[in-house]
Amino acid sequence: MKKEANIDWGNLGFSYIKTDYRYVSKWKDGKWDEGILTKDNTLTISEGSPALHYGQQCFEGLKAYRTKSGKIQLFRVDENAKRMNRSAANLLMPEIPVEKFIDACKKVIKANEHFVPPYGTGATLYIRPFLIGVGDNIGVHPASEYIFSVFCMPVGPYFKGGLKPVNFMIADFDRAAPRGTGSIKVGGNYAASLTPHKIAVEKGFADCIYLDPATQSKIEEVGAANFFGITKNNEFVTPFSPSILPSITKYSLLHIAENYLDLKVFERDVFIDNLSEFAEAGACGTAAVITPIGGIEYKNKLHVFYSTEEPGPITKKLYDILYSIQFGDIEGPEGWIFEV
Ligand SMILES: Cc1ncc(COP(=O)(O)O)c(C=O)c1O
To answer: Which residues contact 150 (CB under 8 A, 6 or more apart)?
Structure first.
């Protein structure tokens, strides 16, 4: 009989749960080893590791979904692999072959299969691949050795309440510089977001939204999700900027909006002084899925989009289609789904 994890699937938050196995592979002398699955959730690394001092590390986040028939599937994992390699290249770290990345994710999911939440609970298995520069070092230069690891845990909604709208405030800080590391998934960006996030939560907001660092006039993104708006003319609009993380969910929604809902779609500037062009707004990402934005506080005024109580109709339609593709209720575009 299959082992069942003793978890209250319907009440999961987004927090660490130790699962049974994780994958660890090491890079040394110019090549990756085979990698192993291990029960040990700790890493022993040199105190001089560049990941510890100079932030030479990057990571990814994706989910495995249990379908109605009990199968497990991944959503666009190849895009996570490619993004991880863009992050790695930017920080002078070795690339991970896309096949190795996908294989590591699948191995971890299979080894922890009993932690994949049942269909219908809304919960998923969150997968966290990461790459760190390690080894004896003290100067600011790239590491001589690297560790690539993948671990996972069951999660519920990132923002409490699922499809219930949340409010955000405009941050008084920048998370990235115009020509910095905003478009790659590296820890430094998130370190910079800790204080603004704390301030936002203390003021009663779910998180903050960052403006473009050069002019402070355009919306960039939420702390851990991209922004989109639906204009009063039914266009799907999302910011275009070199310093935001290219969200895989966002690009999926651009496709869904255009091809399933027949909306015109635009990646373009979104001016904070022109929020009234939008009838609805939302935050999108792997963890956030689609979280409707009730309102945004800017200069002490809360600008409400559709409602602070319920999602707008187009936001809801986008959510339903994305969710149905991810959980296998409807077929997605070719190449989006990877069976485990
Ligand atoms: C800063 C930031 N923006 C956007 C996203 C959403 O990206 P994705 O849809 O690829 O998960 C994330 C989460 O990965 C993020 O951390």
So the answer is: 22, 23, 104, 105, 107, 108, 127, 128, 129, 130
